[in-house]
Write a structure and sequence with these properties.
By secondary structure, this protein is of the alpha/beta class. It is 38% helix and 16% strand. It has a seven-stranded parallel β-sheet, covered by helices on one side. The longest helix has 17 residues, at 194-210.
Length: 434
């Protein structure tokens, strides 16, 4: 077994996470970056991850970003997605990546797979990794005299590993919630029975009241959890890293770029309507405009965009590596940040927001009223936020950005970004450790 690398580290912290390179997508970035900087503050990171996971998105380029100062432990995991793919490998992969078909267009197979996902595997399909992980880690913690563990979810099954280890070992346990649990939007799409809803809430309550400390990524989630527990809760957002990326030549087109998944419910008709009107009203705008889509896009979103006559303006690049995504951020004229119009999504702060903020490109954000990420955009002066009832503001903002594009001075003028650097956020994490 690999020895502890840094004999000068004052603390050893065991981090239990599911998403790790070569996993792609936003879930991997948070702990990949914390692990990178923890040794700078005298903390030895030991990362426990699955050996054979069913990642819906793969980005091999991220493997090279894993810190050589970290100890990585891998153990096999059984996931039932392999069995579910007997019905439909494509549908299973989409559901596991969060792309849930519109309720009005779901087939019987869609409904069956969602019901199974929501009611058979609670809290999620990684539940089978809990027991073998506890058995292995109990011994590992004892042998290596580890005093602090951190579990990161979703998947929230990993918090159950922390729960059991807390019972068996003398440790400090921090539960990190990258997203909320029972209030997250997609829960409503999983066709949960009354029994399943109660079980989720019971597990959530147990985790929040058993962990020594809680970490969340937004103030709204902190407020929700404070109703459930009196344990300490710290907001540590995601952030940006100073990636090595060459300066990019800006797109010649007036490109509005959305980077990341556009799920069926994240389908801003208000935006498509505004763009359609601008194209019909202004032939010069029409000649310059490009809608750049990067990432997994649901068929419902594509169909809606097409219904507004925007087909010929779409540049659909599909999924690209994180490195290429950073390059596209710096090339695009305007960056789109879109969240579902729901009370449940007010607490969601997309990880890409922080990379957007340091790209020097203005952000056009659409989301529900009082969204946590709206406050960050305003305080950093990195773009404009509109809610789903502000069509005229949205349209006038696009025109304002377009006029700045024509004049050659379209860019953002950010302030206070240092609060969101990965290095400073890691310092905040270290200060919060027991």
């Amino acid at each position: 077994m690999k020895p502890i690398l840094d004999s000068n580290a004052s603390k050893k912290v065991l981090i239990i996470t599911y998403y790790w390179p070569p996993a792609g997508g936003p879930g991997v970035q948070r702990w990949l970056k914390f692990v990178k900087y923890l040794p700078d503050f005298g903390v030895q990171p030991i990362v426990y991850v699955p050996e054979n996971p069913s990642y819906p998105i793969i980005d091999e380029n991220l493997v090279s970003q894993v810190s050589d100062r970290a100890i990585i432990i891998k153990k096999p995991i059984f996931e039932p997605y392999g069995l579910a793919s007997i019905f439909s490998k494509n549908k299973t992969k989409k559901i596991s990546s969060g792309i849930i078909p519109n309720s009005k267009k779901q087939t019987f197979l869609d409904q069956l797979l969602l019901w199974i996902r929501g009611n058979i595997f609670i809290p999620d399909a990684r539940i089978f990794w809990v027991k073998p992980s506890v058995s292995f880690l109990e011994k590992y913690i004892s042998e290596h005299q580890i005093e602090t563990i951190i579990t990161s979810g979703p998947p929230h099954s990993l918090h159950l590993i922390g729960l059991e280890l807390k019972k068996k070992c003398t440790i400090n346990w921090l539960a990190d919630f990258r997203d909320p649990w029972t209030t997250i939007g997609y829960h409503k799409a999983l066709k949960l029975t009354t029994f399943s809803i109660k079980k989720h809430k019971k597990l959530e309550h147990k985790i929040l009241n058993s962990a020594d400390k809680i970490i969340v990524t937004s103030q709204t989630t902190k407020a929700e959890f404070q109703v459930i527990t009196s344990k300490p809760i710290e907001v540590i957002t995601n952030g940006y890293d100073l990636e090595n990326s060459d300066k990019q030549k800006l797109d010649e087109k007036f490109s509005l770029a959305h980077i990341g998944s556009l799920l069926s419910e994240r389908n801003p008709q208000i935006l498509w309507e505004c763009l359609s009107e601008l194209i019909n009203e202004n032939t010069i705008f029409s000649s310059h405009f490009e809608l750049k889509l990067i990432g997994a896009i649901s068929s419902e979103v594509i169909e809606t965009i097409q219904s507004f006559g925007l087909s010929k303006f779409i540049n659909n690049l599909g999924y690209i590596s994180h490195k290429e995504a950073l390059e596209q951020q710096r090339k695009s004229q305007v960056l789109l940040l879109i969240e579902i119009n729901s009370e449940d999504t007010k607490s969601i702060i997309p990880g890409k927001l922080f990379e957007y903020m340091v790209s020097e490109r203005p952000i056009l954000a659409i989301g529900p009223n009082e969204s946590d990420f709206a406050k960050i955009i305003k305080e950093t002066n990195t773009g404009v936020f509109v809610n789903y009832n502000e069509k005229e503001k949205l349209k006038s903002t696009i025109i304002e950005f377009y006029n700045a594009f024509l004049e050659g001075n379209l860019k953002s003028h950010a302030i206070g970004l240092q609060n969101y650097s990965r290095q400073n956020l890691t310092k905040k994490l270290v200060d919060y450790l027991p």
